[in-house]
Amino acid sequence: MKEEQNNILENPGMRENPFSVPEGYFSKLENDIHILITSKKEEKSVWKILKPTFALAFTFIIIYGIGYGVISLTNNVKTIKEVPTDMAIIESGYINTNFIDYYENSDSSLISEEETLDEEEIVSYLLNHLSSTDLAYLYASLE
């Protein structure tokens, strides 16, 4: 191995520099650099400034459109129907409707006009059957 290295180093062709510089390169280099430095910079036009902004906006629009298209093609878009707040409270189970159903569905001849619900009965029923968070939600929905 050492003999091969000695042979390579003793070879006169290996001692020559394989790279060369074109004629007049260094004399022209200083002038070229000076021209690049002193040349006027390009003024940016409005389009060059706004082009990246429009590209980003259109990218977001395209991504949104593709996402919406996929969701609508797979029929996963659910429509939200407006439900009155009273019905929403009853349907979500915040109010136990047993006593309401009794008075609404029972025979009207059985209920006399004198039979009414007192405020105290309603309040005591709500206090006994609803938690404090349910009552706070009901109170907030009434406002």
Walkthrough of the structure:
There is one protein chain. By secondary structure, the chain is mainly α. Among the domains are: 43-78; 85-142, no CATH class. The chain has 7 helices and no strands. The protein has helices at residues 2-10, 25-38, 46-73, 85-91, 98-105, 119-129, 132-142. The longest helix is centred in the middle third of the chain and has 28 residues, at 46-73. It is elongated, with a radius of gyration of 43 Å. The model has no long low-confidence stretch (mean pLDDT 75).
Outline the secondary-structure elements:
Blueprint: H1 2-10, H2 25-38, H3 46-73, H4 85-91, H5 98-105, H6 119-129, H7 132-142
Give the amount of beta strand, in percent: under 5%
* Strand-pairing-aware structural class: mainly alpha
* Biggest sheet statistics: none
Give the terminus-to-terminus CA distance.
Answer: 95 Å
Q: Any low-confidence stretches, pLDDT <50, length ≥5? A: none
Silhouette: elongated
Helix content: 55-70%
Task: Specify Rg, calculated over alpha carbons.
Answer: 43 Å
Q: What distinguishing features does this structure have?
A:
143 residues, mainly alpha, elongated
In short:
This protein has 143 residues and is mainly α. It is 62% helix and 0% strand. Among the domains are: 43-78; 85-142, no CATH class.
